[in-house]
Specification:
Elements (H helix, E strand, L loop, with lengths): L6 H16 L1 H7 L13 H6 L15 H5 L1 H5 L5 H10 L2 H5 L12 H5 L6 H14 L5 H13 L7 H9 L10 H10 L2 H6 L11
Length: 207
């Protein structure tokens, strides 16, 4: 399939876009501070191109197919895969890593299936998340899920009322998990240590 990298026009587009977003009335409309040229990391897109999962990010044509087909984007104005990739190509690394939108992806792979450039968009978002965690940025909801996983073996804490209702209706108890094995796996993969380096982490140091 025919592909086109962004190198020939990304520099010009970057200058125009930064100037546009720096206008006071524009930044006020978008609810964010003006973006300065010093915010740009010109090497970020090349780092992504060398990372497994986001190798084809420079092939993006900004056609918007990923966003138009995304089920999350239909219900959330904050999640736009095309915009996130655009920001990455422009070098707005810090803006992406601190953007709550990267945690909204449901990993349904609709964007990946529909992309005319064969970019694995869902995995690009996953790469954003991995880099965010490596840089100490993680959404509080996911931190809470990890805490629950380490304590119970589930990512969702089962309410006592639900357990009581199951018993009243004659349903069998919920399956138990080997929490010790889960903790051991996460510890051996350095996952727990990585999470402890993120602000607001609440995992037990002895785990």
């Amino acid at each position: 399939m025919f592909t086109l990298t962004t190198k020939p026009w990304v520099t010009v587009l970057t200058d125009v876009w930064v100037k546009f977003m720096s206008e006071p009335e524009v930044s006020q409309t978008f609810g964010s501070p003006p973006i300065k040229s010093s915010d740009l990391n010109s090497k970020f897109k090349y780092e992504l191109a060398e990372t497994m999962g986001s190798e084809k990010i420079l092939h993006c044509l900004q056609c918007g197919t990923c966003t138009s087909d995304c089920p999350i984007a239909r219900y959330s104005n904050n999640y736009r895969p095309r915009t996130l990739i655009h920001m990455a190509i422009l070098g707005l690394k810090d803006h992406i890593l601190n953007n709550d939108a990267i945690w909204l992806c449901a990993t349904c792979f609709t964007c990946t299936d529909r992309c005319p450039q064969n970019i694995d968009v869902a995995n690009v978002i996953r790469v954003f998340r991995n880099i965010a965690i490596e840089n100490g940025c993680m959404h509080p909801i996911f931190k809470e899920q990890i805490k629950t996983l380490l304590e119970t073996g589930y990512t969702y804490k089962i309410p006592d009322i639900r357990i009581k209702k199951r018993s009243e209706q004659g349903l069998p108890p919920l399956p138990t998990c080997n929490i010790e094995n889960i903790q051991k796996i996460l510890k051996n993969t350095k996952f727990i240590k990585q999470i402890q380096n993120t602000p607001g982490a609440t995992t037990n140091d002895n785990q």
